[in-house]
Design goal:
With 527 residues, the protein is of the alpha+beta class. It has 3 domains: 167 residues, Sandwich (Chondroitinase Ac, Chain A, domain 3); 119 residues, no CATH class; 177 residues. The chain is 31% helix and 37% strand. Strands 12, 13, 14, 15, 16, 17, 18, 19, 20, 21, 22, 23 and 24 form a 13-stranded antiparallel sheet that branches. The chain has a 6-stranded antiparallel sheet with strand order 1-4-5-11-7-8. Strands 2-3-6-10-9 form a 5-stranded antiparallel sheet. A hairpin with a 2-residue loop joins strand 16 and strand 17. It is globular. It starts with a helix and ends with a strand. The relative contact order is 0.08.
Length: 527
């Protein structure tokens, strides 16, 4: 019995010893690698936005958004080819943030939309404010305040400057004595950005003491380690997977593009030796090209043969990557063929039918038209057409136009088709004329044989402008954002939007009620 018990004790002791060896080995490995390994947990803050907001359509040649509120001025500058399609971008001031640790103070910030937008080249947010004798650091967060983390902040010409590669919220906080650090963010990318931001803050503290070196050798190596960790754990693995999975091409490229932008930013701003990642960048570009080369012909066939419009979002973004990153010839990718097939796939007609009634004026107008939408030589959506006033009644009597029915030219300013995380989305921006050409019209009746009114031949357009003039979808002057579509993707119809409503209006001499029934149908017509 004692022998059996002793054997059990010996066996248990051996088990404990082996377990301790594994635990010690694991602890030593963790100690060795924990410099760049930040524990992952989700940290969220609550954001309250100011009512003031500005919006602009950013095109291929770049653009600017500016917003001034109290003593703070925001200027957001987009370089050329920072967006892959003409896009309506909005900037709204952050009024307050709750959830920051004690000692951290919000100085200024903005929220950018559409949420999730990823830029081809970083935009720069310049913030002008009274920021003397304060220790500042930049922050970013994702939609609804998620994944709050620090990001690099630079000072130039009495301005705080933040480099932006994707949307949502950005700004600066005062960290006071430097004891405040948010918990480690959720993503590897955000972990690296926060770690680099803290190195830069340390360097700026050092420079305040008179040491004018932008980065010491130790700081250079710290930044390198964090960027290298980001590459090995997120960028490279995702790119490798994307070669055999077309759904991973866009997110893996976005991850790579943000990583490379981080290298370019610290190289330009602080003299970091970006050539240390030259080999990794070359490998990554070849992987992107290989993934696109493997996928685009198959996607094109789905688009044209099956009239699968969901392929368009992929192909236009792949073509954008290939053009802007100069991928032609890498891994056998033929960019001209990719662009040609993308143009054949991305062809639409937009059919519009609209009826607007004015009960007080006892008038009804019906207008309809078809607009053509396709890609231009730079792979940007463009197009247009005409909307014609088809019929008009006054007090129940049909009217005619001796000079011909009014025709309104309409231009496609921007078209966005997205198949990202939030599901399929369509967003069009149409440019209408500011006013229609005045036409005489005749309304025959038994009481009045030929009732003629002058200077009133733009009834439908005038009423359409009246309905939308005070809504967020209206972008002065004459531009309208058509969003919130129903995705159909059947019978040739990719998406549809129906507006049926009654609205009371008092504007520019008009006071009354307008009843609108408008239908938009986006028809996919691959060539």
């Amino acid at each position: 019995m004692d022998m059996v018990r002793n054997k059990k004790i010996v066996f248990f002791s051996i088990f404990i010893a082996v377990l301790l060896v594994f635990l010690v080995a694991g602890f030593l490995w963790w100690q060795k690698n924990r410099k760049n390994e930040l524990p992952s947990n989700v940290y969220s803050i609550e954001v309250k936005l100011d009512q003031e907001k500005t919006s602009q359509i950013i095109k291929e040649d770049g653009g600017n958004l500016s917003l001034k509120n109290d003593d703070i001025e925001f200027n957001l500058n987009f370089p050329k080819q920072s967006v892959t399609q003409n896009q309506l971008i909005s900037m709204q001031k952050i009024a307050s943030i709750s959830g920051l640790d004690q000692g951290a103070e919000l100085i200024a910030g903005v929220e950018l939309s559409p949420q999730g937008t990823v830029l081809m080249a970083p935009a720069e947010l310049a913030i002008s404010s009274k920021m003397e004798n304060e220790r500042l650091i930049a922050f970013a967060y994702e939609e609804n305040g998620k994944n709050f983390h620090f990001i690099p902040l630079f000072f130039e010409e009495n301005q705080a400057k933040i480099q932006i590669t994707n949307f949502s919220g950005y700004g600066i906080i005062n960290v006071g004595d430097g004891t405040y650090t948010p918990p480690p963010p959720e993503s590897i990318e955000a972990q690296a950005q926060q770690a680099i931001a803290k190195v830069i803050l340390k360097a700026q503290d050092r420079m305040r003491t008179g040491d004018k070196r932008s980065l010491t050798d130790e700081e250079q190596n710290e930044i390198y380690d964090f960027l290298n960790d980001w590459y090995k754990k997120a960028v490279r693995p995702d790119l490798m997977k994307s070669v055999d999975n077309e759904d991973l091409i866009e997110p893996s490229f976005n991850q790579f593009n943000k990583w490379r932008a981080a290298i370019q930013i610290v190289t330009k701003k602080l003299g970091f030796d970006g050539d240390r990642f030259k080999k990794e960048i070359e490998f990554s570009l070849n992987q992107v090209a290989k993934a696109v080369a493997n996928a685009y012909v198959k996607a094109s066939q789905k688009c044209t043969a099956d009239k699968d419009a969901t392929q368009i979002a992929k192909m236009t973004k792949w073509a954008g990557f290939a053009q802007y990153q100069e991928l032609d010839g890498r891994s056998g990718l033929d960019v001209s063929d990719l662009i040609d097939l993308t143009k054949k796939c991305a062809h639409f007609e937009l059919k519009i039918t609209s009826k607007i009634e004015s009960p007080e004026a006892k008038s009804t107008t019906i207008a309809s038209g078809t607009l053509s939408i396709g890609l231009d030589e730079n792979n940007y959506f463009t197009g247009g057409g005409e909307i014609k006033e088809e019929s008009r009644t006054e007090a129940g009597f049909a009217c005619s136009y001796p000079q011909g029915s009014p025709v309104y030219p309409v231009e496609i300013i921007a078209a966005m088709l997205d198949t990202g995380k939030g599901g399929q989305r369509v967003n069009l921006i149409l440019q209408f004329p500011e006013e229609g050409e005045d036409r005489e019209y005749d309304c025959a009746s038994t009481e009045i044989e030929n009732f003629t009114t002058e200077n009133a031949g733009n009834e439908w357009l005038g009423n359409y402008l009246l309905i939308y003039h005070d809504e967020k979808s209206y972008i002065p002057i004459g531009k309208f954002e058509i969003g919130d579509w129903q995705i159909v993707n059947s019978g040739g119809i990719y998406a549809k939007k129906t507006v049926s409503r009654t609205k009371t209006i008092s504007f520019f001499g008009f006071s009354g009620t307008l009843i609108e029934n408008t239908t938009y149908e986006l028809i996919h017509l691959p060539q």
